[in-house]
Design a protein that fits this description.
By secondary structure, this protein is α/β, with parallel strands linked by helices. It has helices at 32-40, 66-74, 78-83, 85-106, 151-157, 165-184, 200-218, 236-248, 251-259, 272-285; strands at 2-3, 14-16, 46-47, 116-118, 122-125, 128-131, 137-139, 144-147, 231-233. The strands form three sheets. A five-stranded mixed β-sheet has the order 2-4-8-7-3. Helix 6 crosses helix 7 and helix 7 runs parallel beside helix 10 (272-285).
Length: 295
């Protein structure tokens, strides 16, 4: 996966509060065992900390820190995205949103852009206060994606993913899949708290995987603000890395790894095979209409 060295990056789509303080908030899921339990239950790549039973303290964004200024100074061009993980994430956010902007317009709709918030430790959101242990998530209450960049290391070390830049891009694109669901009204009707292999929760997550694949299909042909595609190269190896990441965070893989048995009745995100299947369905078809996991 490679970005156009001379392409401009838009850091306005990312807010960096790493090192910031969460005023007045408290995390109801912390690190250690509690965080591990959250991950074992498959609450990963999720929708809002409210799904995790977190106490909602209102919208409490972390205090702005010098890291935001650093990203704004450092992540200027595609060459920076090719060299730095945080800048690469900025570039992926730009690319994903450029695609959905055009796709919504093509279908006669309007796409509302959503920022990604980089955080470390914990963060306040309109869905409640969350710690890094819950993994990446999208909060429909404030229409933001939340991401601790340290999660990408966990993807390799805790979950056995082969890693690679596109594995990270898959994570980001999946979260923006939830934003698409929110804008189209799918998300509102699917958060009933029911778990299980055939639950709406699983179908919601699989559809977000499919939407990530749809973006990947069009990533190298979607023009950026400069008129040229931001992402210039996506190889078969990149797609394999995405499929590998999708499998690594399947409910069955996580449960087998951490509790020694698979309990489909508690699934929230789907099996490794399902997650790979739906990501690939999106990639092969390139059509969000082929992502109807609720059918």
């Amino acid at each position: 996966m490679r970005f156009d060295d001379d392409a401009d990056l838009d850091t306005s789509e990312v807010r960096d509060v790493r090192g910031g303080r969460v005023p007045g908030g408290r995390a109801t899921i912390g690190g250690g065992l509690a965080g591990l339990i959250a991950l074992v239950l498959g609450l990963l790549f999720g929708v809002g900390p409210n799904q995790l039973g977190l106490t909602s303290d209102g919208d409490q964004p972390g205090a702005a820190s010098s890291s935001l200024a650093q990203v704004q100074r450092t992540c200027l061009k595609g060459r920076d995205a090719n060299a730095r993980e945080d800048c690469r994430t900025v570039a992926v956010v730009n690319s994903v949103q450029a695609y959905w902007d055009r796709e919504f317009a093509r279908r006669g709709g309007t796409y509302t852009r959503a920022p990604t918030v980089f955080f470390g430790g914990r963060v306040g959101t309109a869905c409640g206060t969350a710690s890094s242990s819950v993994g990446p998530f999208y909060c429909p209450g404030d229409r933001k994606v939340y991401l601790d960049l340290g999660f990408f290391d966990n993807l390799r070390t805790r979950f056995g993913s082969g890693g690679g830049p596109f594995a990270q891009a898959y994570v980001v694109a999946h979260e923006y899949g939830h934003h698409v669901q929110n804008l189209t009204g799918t998300l509102a009707g699917s958060q009933d708290g029911v778990t299980g292999a055939n639950s709406d929760s699983v179908k919601t997550e699989l559809q977000a995987d499919c939407y990530a694949g749809v973006w990947a299909r069009h990533a190298t042909t979607t023009p950026s603000s400069s008129g040229k595609p931001l992402l210039t190269s996506l190889t078969d190896t990149d797609i394999r890395d995405g499929l590998d990441a999708a499998a690594a965070v399947g409910d069955d893989r996580i449960q087998e790894r951490y509790q020694g048995r698979v309990t489909p009745e508690t699934w929230t995100h789907g099996s490794a095979e399902q997650r790979q299947q739906w990501f690939y369905q999106g990639f092969i078809s390139g059509d969000m209409a082929q992502c109807n996991t609720f059918r």
